[in-house]
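Progress narrative, Year 2. Work on ABCG2 protein from Pygoscelis papua advanced from sequence curation to structure prediction during this period.
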Amino acid sequence: RLSRRGRTIIFSIHQPRYSIFKLFDSLTLLALGKVLYHGPAKQALEYFSSIGYECEPFNNPADFFLDIINGDSTAVAASKEDHRSVDTGKEVSSENGVAEDNVDSSVVDVLHQKYLNSSLYQSTKEALGKVELGRGSKQRVSKQGHEITYANGFLTQLYWVSKRSLKNLIRNPQASIAQIAVTVILALVVGAIFFGVKLDRSGIQNRVGSLFFVTTNQCFSSVSAIELFIRDKKLFV
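Result:
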């Protein structure tokens, strides 16, 4: 529902089973900063089969792709001799065995090169080229000084934050009742102290003292609101 309202949602799925994987529309595989596949998820198995990586029966496609990238797949082991012949000259030492993050760099290079030679890459490159041309013409017209850094303006942000704070106050009436009670008691105490002040020079000084006391109390009592920002900041981050 949120995505249909135009929001971008990012979430992480660890080891998705096939019933979840088949819901994916588009699939992108990355390793060592290189794209190994980008295209429809349903065509991924067919693509890897065309370049010599056959998925074993009853194997989860998501696990199969991760095994290929990590060099743990039986298809990788079977075609390792082919990889060495096509390798670009980068060697992996026998002590380490694998490159950074347990990913075989030779396998990554081969898969990346095969993807660059595929029709999927060419179609993606053409689509990105059209998008860049469209953005380039728009960027020339717009000035950098008027660049919008937030999706919504200040008034929109203030409205939603205020609405959220009001809901929190309504849902925690005990805190509001306690604040009202403290304020009423303090008002009675201050009123009793400065009750019956005369209209002379000493009365003016007393009124100044009462205003100073009330103002100072309000300033220090509002400092406690900073705790809300600190607590909400942790949740936000």
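Confidence is low (pLDDT under 50) at residues 86-100. Residues 62 and 147 are 40 Å apart (CA to CA).
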